[in-house]
Amino acid sequence: MSGASLRVGLVGLGMMGRNHLRVVSTHPETVLVAVADLDPAALDAATAQTGATGYADPLAMIREADVEAIVIAAPTTAHVPLALAAIERGLPVLVEKPLAATHAEALEIVAAGRANGVAVQVGHVERYNPAVLKLGELLRAGWLTNVYAIVSRRAGPFPARIRDVGVTVDLATHDADMLSWIARERPVRAYAELAQRKHATHEDLLFGLLHFPSGATGMLDVNWLTPAKRRQLTVIGEEGMFELDYLTQRLTFTKSDLAHPQLIAGYAPTFSGDVLDIEVETHEPLKAQLDAFVRAVRTGERPYVDGEDGAWAVRIATALLEAASTVRPVDLVGEGSPA
């Protein structure tokens, strides 16, 4: 399959679908052959922009279009039938996160991909953020001997487009995946508190806690109630603290300095530490994700973020929902394999 551009079909032209439309149609190693969406106006705009063939029926596109791979950016509750149809035809799929609305449905997609020898990649795009990649490099290099805590904040205004799932499955799956990746292990216990303030049917605020086998603790602050978008990550360990901003792709490291306290206004002791700005070569994570998908399709290698990763992120999200509804921690011991 090397040489010629990979022929790709895209299902879904919502916010993320339009981003995929832009990236797939301009990528040097892909050609957008077909697009599908139930909205005639969105479909007409996409075909006029790219020259791709439009389909009002996504399943018809998967069955009929002359494609070699499928990107699924449809609503979460539609992922299972679309992914299974593509896999049945032998087409590798890049499925937007979350992989599915429930853990059982996510496992169904994973099992189908495995049974048919078809690659399933999941759109946990934060894994391709250059600041995240640099953070992973520094953690592997031993900048933190032990990770004590990982704190993730993902907040912003209420998105009217999301109706089928709440903030935990839609957004916190990003952080469930990211915290597991940083800890390099799966959590063994989950607890959460939820609130529903603006969403008609689902929660729009989550405070979650994860406990990892190493003793590290993860905290998730995820909501659709914050008037300004925030995407931040803090990793605290023995030698200091990393702080990362997904949006600006900025990464800093503050070295612990407990031996030299400072005073604020002459009386309040604090410890500032030396702050180092880490150099990060910026790039667009969505393009890097597509690079990885093309490579996986062409080489047959395991996708960088595969179906098992996506299914585990959904499992953590559902554990957080269960913990909140039962007002007790949920035990995950023995459910996950190493990240």
What does this molecule look like?
With 339 residues, the protein is an alpha/beta fold. The chain has 2 domains: 6-124 and 286-306, Rossmann fold, CATH 3.40.50.720; 127-283 and 315-331, Dihydrodipicolinate Reductase, domain 2. 35% of the residues lie in helices and 27% in strands. The protein contains 9 helices and 17 strands. The strands form 3 sheets. The protein has a 9-stranded mixed β-sheet. A 6-stranded parallel β-sheet has the order 3-2-1-4-5-6, sandwiched between helices. α1 links the parallel β1 (6-11) and β2. α3 (58-64) runs parallel beside α4, α4 runs parallel beside α5 and α7 (167-183) packs across α9. The longest helix has 20 residues, at 307-326. The mean pLDDT is 93.
Strand content is 25-35%
Shape: globular
What's the helix count?
A: 9
Q: If you average the pLDDT, what whole number results?
A: 93
Terminus-to-terminus distance: 30 Å
Structural key phrases:
Rossmann fold; six-stranded parallel sheet; nine-stranded mixed sheet; Dihydrodipicolinate Reductase, domain 2; 17 strands; 27% strand; alpha/beta; 339 residues; 35% helix; 2 domains
Summarize the structure.
This protein has 9 helices and 17 strands. With 339 residues, the protein is of the alpha/beta class. It has 2 domains: 6-124 and 286-306, 3-Layer(aba) Sandwich (Rossmann fold); 127-283 and 315-331, 2-Layer Sandwich (Dihydrodipicolinate Reductase, domain 2).
